[in-house]
Structure formats: structure tokens, C-alpha cells
Automatic annotation (TrEMBL):
Listed name of the protein: NDUF3 factor
GO biological process: mitochondrial respiratory chain complex I assembly
Pfam families, A to Z: DUF498
Entries under InterPro entries matching the protein: MTH938-like_sf (IPR036748), NDUFAF3/AAMDC (IPR007523)
Biological classification of the source: Eukaryota, Metazoa, Chordata, Craniata, Vertebrata
Organism: Nothoprocta ornata
Length: 88
């Protein structure tokens, strides 16, 4: 279990390369970032998704309830994962 951090993201519109920079700096490097976008799945800008893939991080975008379940499942499989969750 790692620390809980709270970047200043109020909605999916605030998610940017800068707000996700922390996840590119984590050691050991994560494989998967699970993003929970609140009550429903929100589409993120394709350039942001491409940038994260270029950094070697897969991004899974889901509503927050399902993102929590996915994160827990990936952790149970000992995957190097992190979650960024916007409350529903």
C-alpha cells in the first residue's frame, strides 16, 4: 500500500499530462494507471493517452466504482499499478 495523494483535479476535464506527471516518476515504474472519472466513464484527450503509452504506462479509464474494483484486482495479481480516482 502506498500513500494517497490528491492532485488538484476536480473533474475529468482537469486531467492533463501535468496532473499525471507523478505517475511517470514512481519507482518502481508502474505498468498500469487506472483512472476513475466519477459517476461515468469520460473520454480523455487522445494525445494524453498516447503520451502515457509512450512513457510505458497503460491507462485504463473507467467510472470510479469500477476503477476501484479493477485496481484491487490488479493489486491482487501483484501488478505494478496505481489509481487516480475522482469521487463519484
Amino acid at each position: 500500500q502506498g500513500p494517497a495523494l490528491s492532485p488538484q483535479v476536480g473533474s475529468h476535464r482537469d486531467i492533463s499530462s501535468e496532473s499525471l506527471a507523478l505517475f511517470r516518476l514512481l519507482e518502481p515504474r508502474i505498468e498500469i494507471l487506472v483512472l476513475g472519472t466519477g459517476d461515468r466513464v469520460e473520454r480523455l484527450h487522445p494525445a494524453l493517452m498516447k503520451h502515457m503509452r509512450a512513457c510505458g504506462i497503460a491507462v485504463e479509464v473507467q467510472d470510479t466504482v469500477n476503477a476501484c474494483a479493477t485496481f484491487n484486482f490488479l493489486m491482487s495479481e501483484k501488478r505494478l499499478t496505481a489509481a487516480a480516482l475522482i469521487p463519484p
